[in-house]
Amino acid sequence: MNSALVVARKDFEDAIRSRGVLLVSAVFVALFVFGAYFFADQVSQAAQASAQSGGQQGGDPVDSDAFLRTLSSGVTLLVPIVAVVASYSAVIGERASGTLKLLLSLPHSRRDVVLGKLLGRGGVVAVPAVGGLLLSMLVFPLTSVALAPLNYVAFTALTALLGLVFVALSVGISAAASTGRRAVVGSVGSYLFLLVFWNRAADPIVGRLSDALSWEPATTVKASLTLKLLNPLGAYSSLVAALSAESTALARASVTGGIQLSRRAGIVQQIYAQRLTEEGIPFYLTDAAVLAYLLVWLAVSAVVGYAVFRRADL
Fold first, then answer.
1. Which position has the higher pLDDT, 297 or 6?
2. Contact 117/91 with Cβ under 8 angstroms?
C-alpha cells in the first residue's frame, strides 16, 4: 500500500504542474462559484419583480437544494468528461513512452501502479471539483438563498465519488489497452454508451423480458428502474435527487426523466413513484444499494483493468 501511495503522490504532483489541471480547476471554480452567484441573483430578481407587481413574496422558500438540482445536470456531463481526459493515458501513456518499465524496476508492483494511478488521477479530478463546490457554499450566506449545508456536503461527496468512478473506469481501460488509441476509444466510448445508449436500451430490454415472463406492472417498473440505476450516471442522479425529494420513490423514479422538483415531476415519474410507494421500496432500490452500485463500478473497473494488465507482455 505504501508503494501505491508513492506512485499516487508522484502522479498527482506531476499532474498539478500541468496547465491542463490548472484550467480544469479554474473551470470547476467558475462553474460552481459563479453558478451559485447567478442562481442567487436570479432568485433575488424574481422576488423583487413579484413584489413590484403586487404578488406575494411568500410561497415556497428557495434554498441551495434548488441550485444543486440545477447544477447536477451539468455535473453529470462535465465531471465524467474531465475524469476520462485526465485518466485515459494514465498507464498506457507510461507504457508507450517506456517509463513504465523503469517504474516497475523500482520496488513497485503492477498492482501498485494501477492503484497509485487510480488514487493520483482521482485526486486530480476530485480536488478541484470539491474545492469549487465548497467555495460556492460561501456565496449563499451573502444572499437571500438559504443554505442547506448537510445536503451541500453530501452533494459534494457524491460528485467526488462520480469522478472517482470514471477515473477508475478510464484507468482500468488504460491498464488493459495495448495502445493509446484503444485506450482513448475505450474510455470515450464507455462514457458515451453510459450517457446516451444505456437508458435508451433499458426500457426495450425490460419490455421484452416482461412480455416473455409475464411480469406484473410493478415488477416491470422495478426492473426498469434497477437497470437504469446500474448505470453510474443514473445512480448519481438518483442519489442527488434523494437529497431533496419528498420520498425515496420519487428519487428512484427521477432516472426516468432527470431530476425535477417533485411537484413538477413528469407523468412517467409519478406513475413509477406511485408503483414503488404501493409495493414498498425493495432493498435493491434503497439509497444504500444505489450507493453500492457506484462503489461496485469503481472497484470492478480497477480490478478488471489490473487483471488484464498483470498478464500483459510489456
1. 297
2. yes
Q: Are 290 and 165 in contact (CB under 8 A)?
A: no
Residues in the chain: 314
Q: Is 258 exposed, middle or buried (0-12, 13-18, 19+ CB in 10 A)?
A: middle
H helices within 106-148, ranges in order?
Answer: 110-137
Residue 170 grid coordinates: 478510464
Judged against a pLDDT cut of 90, whether residue 80 lies above it is answered with: yes
Q: Which residue has the cell 428557495?
A: 62
Q: How far apart are CA 113 and CA 57, in angstroms?
A: 58
What distance in Å separates the CA atoms of residue 6 and residue 225, rounded to the nearest whole number? 41
Residue 255 has pLDDT above 80, yes or no: yes
Give the mean pLDDT of the chain.
87
Which domain covers residue 243, as residue numbers?
Answer: 2-311
Cβ–Cβ under 8 Å, residues 82 and 122: no
Q: Please check whether residue 43 is in contact with residue 62, taking contact to mean a CB–CB distance below 8 angstroms.
A: yes
Amino acid in the structure at residue 138:
L
Using CA atoms, how far residue 153 sits from 67, 233, 262, 265, in Å, is 13, 19, 22, 25
Element (H, E) at 144: none
pLDDT score at 306: 94
DSSP state of 20: H
Total structural domains within the chain: 1
How sure is the predictor about 108, in pLDDT bands with cuts at 50, 70 and 90?
confident
Query: Which residue from 227, 242, 220 is spatially nearest to 287, judged by alpha carbons?
Result: 242
